[in-house]
Amino acid sequence: GGKDRRSGLILTIPLCLEQTSMDELSVTLDYLLSIPSEKCKARGFTVIVDGRKSQWNVVKTVVLMLQNVVPAEVSLVCVVKPDEFWDKKVTHFCFWKEKDRLGFEVILVSANKLTRYIEPCQLTEDFGGTLTYDHMDWLNKRLVFEKFTKESTSLLDELALINNGSDKGTQEKERSMDFNFLPSVDPETVLQTGHELLSELQQRRFNGSDGGVSWSPMDDELLAQPQVMKLLDSLREQYTRYQEVCRQRSKRTQLEEIQQKVMQVVNWLEGPGSEQLRTQWGIGDSIRASQALQQKHEEIESQHSEWFAVYVELNQQIAALLNAGDEEDLVELKALQQQLSDVCYRQASQLEFRQNLLQAALEFHSVAQDLSQQLDGLLGMLCVDVAPADGASIQQTLKLLEEKLKSVDLGLQGLREKGQSLLDQISNQASWAYGKDVTIENKENVDHIQGVMEDMQLRKQRCEDMVDVRRLKMLQMVQLFKCEEDAAQAVEWLSELLDALLKTHIRLGDDAQETKVLLEKHRKFVDVAQSTYDYGRQLLQATVVLCQSLRCTSRSSGDTLPRLNRVWKQFTITSEERVHRLETAVAFHSSAEKVLQECPEQPEAFNEMEQFDEIEAVGKSLLDRLTVPVVYPDGSEQYLGSPSDMASAAEHIREKMKLVSMKKQQLRQPEPATPES
Q1: Among 476, 551, 581, 620, which one has the highest count of C-beta atoms within 10 angstroms of its own C-beta?
Q2: What is the CATH number of the domain that holds 449?
Q3: SS3 637
Q4: Are 282 and 357 in contact (CB under 8 A)?
Q5: pTM
Q6: Are 27 and 124 contained in the same domain?
Q7: Signal peptide: which range, if any (predicted)?
Q8: What is the CB neighbour count within 10 angstroms for residue 437?
């Protein structure tokens, strides 16, 4: 890296103790001398042979070899000798005497005196100089440089061949592209290596090292920085052309692939795809049939989806190419895009129409099946004879029947709506939908839909007629149960009246007036009981009529009617007993009050004592009557009131009888004589 005082390059040959191969040394010198430019070689070389660690014979051989390797370029050879051992041998061979024969001057010099011939700043530390030099660093950079030079030169040739081939005719161009379109090395990698090398060289040139001289001939001339820059410029130029060639080739290849794929999509959709739809026209006659057709349609859609996915990808690729803005391809790309879109949208519309039609058919058949099941359930309910336990269950059954009929009405209305919607879709099914006339197939579908709706209407009408009959029968049964319940209620009311008569209607009154009021109340009480009995009889007669109409046996004929008659008979007997006691009490009180109210000054009113006897007899009869129970036809007995009530009434009668008896005694006694008499 250093220079002598003539600006010639300094070449250092270090020798060592080991055996030095002259052949390897010769090759190394040839390589090193090939590095500098011709301008540098013209200034000559100064060769430093470091023989301090070698033998004299080796040093002499090396010096002589320089005569054959670089005789013209070498101007001075400095042999660095050891401090001893060579003095005697030098006398046998003087290099200065051989200057003319060798072609250059040879100087034997010690290492510390080498600065006499070369500036210290151009010598390395091994020779007492200050020149900074790292041989491994130089070697690595040299290897990088040579690798870059070799790869870039080869790459330039390849890129030139590829780029020049792009200017030939179409067939020749395609053939060259196909034959060797890709270079052997990556241009990006080579360019990056060159830039890194150039950056390192420029940094060393301008920064210097360790405060030394900033200019270094090793970088500028030995590593040929201009050569790196020139190679990089050439590479960038050829690589830019190569990228454009690749872009054009890629665009042309992509366009051809797009054209091929577009035609594949169009041919399949207009061919096998349309043929699949042409074979599918029915809507099925049941849910299962419609579901099978839907499953088949889903398989067709699945096959179409694969091609639609290709369509989406192609559409994106075409859009990307259109955005690139190459005018020469715009018309062709737009035509391809329009053709592809038209075919795909038309086929997608056909698939969607078919799917909607099958979905509408499935909904129609679902509603029809639900309605059929509702009609079957309603018919089954109507066919079962009604045998409810009471009127509430009949009302509940009637309500359920009405709800089912209403549900059937709603179901039939829904069926008509679904059917009409399906018919509208079928009527809108034009021949373009499947590429053929579908009138015959549509007529079969229309006839099926209308037939289903008419059949459901007839079944619903039959069920309505049966519901009307069943409703009338159930209303009569409700009336029958109501009559039976009311008749039973009449019996309960009459029983309550009888119970009230036996337990609460027991007073006989304290005087005639009160007894007459009680008698009048009792007659009204009997009228209420009579009305209740008559009401029960009428209800039972109505049940008989309803049973005859319904052709069933009334439970009242064996239960309610005998109970009603039995309770009424008991009430009648009890009422008659009550009337008899009240009438007897009226007679007793009236007679007793009459005699008790008569004045003593009128003895003529009691001329006959039989009247007192009669009152006494009536009172005793009434007392006896109070102790006698009411005997019913079945032999059962009932007392009117409790024993305490009867004792209270009897006590009151006895007191009044006692008053009458005292009155009688007063009338029998003779009146005492007055003083005048």
Answers
A1: 581
A2: 1.20.58
A3: strand
A4: no
A5: 0.48
A6: yes
A7: none
A8: 10
Q: Which of 58, 48, 47 is nearest to 16 (CA)?
A: 58
Return the closest-CA partner of residue 346 out of 263, 266, 427.
266
Q: Which domain holds residue 532?
A: 505-668
Instruction: Give the model's confidence band at 458: pLDDT under 50 very low, under 70 low, under 90 confident, else very high.
Output: very high
Secondary structure element (H or E) that encloses residue 170, with its range: helix 170-179
CATH of the domain at 60: 3.40.525
Query: Greater confidence, 598 or 484?
Result: 484
pLDDT of residue 672: 56
Looking at the structure, tell me whether residues 353 and 304 fall in a common domain: yes
Structural contact between residues 298 and 280, judged by C-beta atoms closer than 8 angstroms: no
Q: Are 114 and 48 contacting, i.e. CB atoms less than 8 angstroms apart?
A: yes
Question: 194 is written with which tokens?
Answer: 């060159």
Q: Do 598 and 536 belong to one domain? A: yes
Give yes or no: residues 150 and 260 share one domain: yes
Residue 3 lies in a domain: no
* Statement to judge: residues 606 and 522 lie in one domain: yes
Query: How many of the other CB atoms lie within 10 Å of CB of 238?
Result: 21
Locate 161 and state its tokens: 């061949």
593 φ, ψ (degrees, to nearest 5): -65, -30
Question: DSSP secondary structure string, 265-283?
Answer: HHHHIIIIIHHHHHT----
Rounded to the nearest 5°, which phi and psi values hold at 253?
-65, -40
Domain count, the chain: 4
In this structure, the answer to whether residues 331 and 451 fall within a common structural domain is yes
Residue 619 has pLDDT above 80, yes or no: yes
Answer for the pair 388, 394: CB distance below 8 angstroms, yes or no. Answer: yes
Residue 144 CA to chain centroid, in angstroms?
62
Residues 290 and 240 in one domain: no
* Share above pLDDT 90 across residues of the chain, in percent, rounded to a whole number: 5
φ, ψ of residue 438 in degrees (nearest 5): -110, 20
**Radius of gyration (C-alpha) of the chain in whole angstroms:** 71
Token pair of 496 as six digits: 């309550």
What pLDDT shows up at residue 452? Answer: 92
